[in-house]
């Protein structure tokens, strides 16, 4: 892995009826023009329909690697959404940086803001619905191509053409890929010591820390 990584697109979305369903959602995001302010709760102009499961300080910004789009085109076919950025509802798109190379607790300079990786993205049914019934949700879990969330430590601004620069890596053994595998993809069944050791990762978002405790108890 080398740093910095050029930011290909910065995307924001407004709450609107979900296609073909009517439920409110802001998963459909469009590239922002120019620079966007980065606040504690995310990008200015970006919305979330259900604050119980989306948004908040620990899920302020969603990053999805554009590297995965080729995999999805091979898996589900050349869906029109894959022709542009934002197919997975992401706020930040880059190439060259995936879940195996990003760690929980990583601190990155995102434009002028400072952000910290808090957890992977846990997929939901809306991905399948967005892709016209393709089994994207299960594919995300199976392939571990989930993306990740940032919390914002220092506010600033970001735009396409800026860079993502690694500042600090306090937990180099805890990639997003590994943590997603333990907490979401079922690998805890074969790695209880890893699940126990994950408790030392103070930067892990509280909902995922609670999930770890539930799995340990279960």
UniProtKB/TrEMBL annotation:
Coiled coil: none annotated. Residues 30-167 form the MOSC domain. Transmembrane segments: none annotated. Pfam families: MOSC. Gene3D superfamilies: PK beta-barrel domain-like (2.40.33.20). PANTHER family: PROTEIN YIIM (PTHR30212). This is MOSC domain-containing protein YiiM.
């Amino acid at each position: 892995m080398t740093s910095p990584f050029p930011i290909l697109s910065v995307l924001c979305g407004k709450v609107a009826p979900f296609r073909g369903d009517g439920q409110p959602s802001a998963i459909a995001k469009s590239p922002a023009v120019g620079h966007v302010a980065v606040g504690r709760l995310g990008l200015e102009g970006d919305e979330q329909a259900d604050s119980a499961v989306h948004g908040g300080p620990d899920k302020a910004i969603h990053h999805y690697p554009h590297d995965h789009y080729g995999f999805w085109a091979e898996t589900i076919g050349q869906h029109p959404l894959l022709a542009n950025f934002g197919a997975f509802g992401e706020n930040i798109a880059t190439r060259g940086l995936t879940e195996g190379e990003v760690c929980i607790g990583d601190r990155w300079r995102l434009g002028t803001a400072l952000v910290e990786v808090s957890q992977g993205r846990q997929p939901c049914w809306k991905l399948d619905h967005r892709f016209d019934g393709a089994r994207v949700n299960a594919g995300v879990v199976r392939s571990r191509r989930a993306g990740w969330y940032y919390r914002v430590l220092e506010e600033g601004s970001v735009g396409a053409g800026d860079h993502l620069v690694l500042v600090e890596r306090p937990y180099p053994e805890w990639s997003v890929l590994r943590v997603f595998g333990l907490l979401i993809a079922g690998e805890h069944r074969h790695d209880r010591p890893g699940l126990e050791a994950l408790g030392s990762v103070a930067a892990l978002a509280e909902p995922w820390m609670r999930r770890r405790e539930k799995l340990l108890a279960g």
